[in-house]
Amino acid sequence: MVPFSFAGETFEATASGALFWPAQRALLVADLHLEKASWFARLGQFLPPYDSHATLTALSAEVERSGAARLYCLGDSFHDAFGCDRLPATARTLLTELTSILDWTWIIGNHDPGFADHCGGRIADEVEIDGVILRHEARVGEQRPEISGHFHPKLRVNLKGRHVSRRCFVVSASKLIMPAFGALTGGLDAHHPEIMRSVGGDAAALVPVSDRLLRFPLAA
Predict the structure, then answer these.
(1) Residue 79, phi then psi, degrees to nearest 5
(2) For the chain, domain boundaries
């Protein structure tokens, strides 16, 4: 985990796309998109049905590593409103174990509106903690510090002829957009106009690498 400051608070970013808030003992993740593969399977496009188990295994590791007592999922936790009902037994066991030991909050996203919790935890449209707003999608014009997901930002760079893509956090003075944590999620280029419009000027992409946090300025 690599520490950095945002909104006067210290956070720790991980290469997997999680964010730990030590002062709150809270782990934040966005866009798990659990049961995405089974959603596609219902449409006749068959994908390996292991995405939820892989995502929850990675999440469990981050919980153990951080020592978190609280967990906030910043929307699109399931790929659709009925994803929780389709969880395989092993994935459901992993999830219910986590929700039973953590103060767990599901924030609703655009993929899971109407999500009725059958896996533990509580549901909220958004949450405010010490003046910092946690919601799914950044709100243009929001003056309060805000942490969100939705865009799945990735930094794409060309290194000596090789195209490299990495999950990244996009930050400005008052906005922090998290990468997707899910195992079966794509990503939007961090330079994309929709991301830049959401965070405003003077934004940067943060890429955690080992014990360092690489910062890449993003031009509007």
Answers:
(1) -70, -20
(2) 2-218
> Which residues face 158 on adjacent strands?
163
Residue type, 189: D
The SS3 assignment for 143 reads coil
Locate 178 and state its tokens: 């998290």
Cα 147 to its chain centre, rounded Å, is 10
Give me the CATH code for the 2-218 domain, please: 3.60.21
List the structure tokens of 163.
């195209």
What b/e string do you get for 7-37 counting C-beta neighbours within 10 Å, with b at 16 or more?
Answer: bebebbbbebbbbbbeebebbbbbbbbbbbb
The three-point CA angle 209-178-21 to 5° equals 80
Q: Report pLDDT digits (tens) over 95-149.
A: 999 999 999 999 988 756 666 566 889 999 999 999 999 999 999 989 999 999 9
DSSP states of 69-110 as a string?
SEEEEES--BSSTTHHHH--HHHHHHHHHHHHHSEEEEEP-S
Give residue-wise pLDDT tens across range 182-218.
Answer: 876 888 999 999 999 999 878 999 999 878 899 999 9
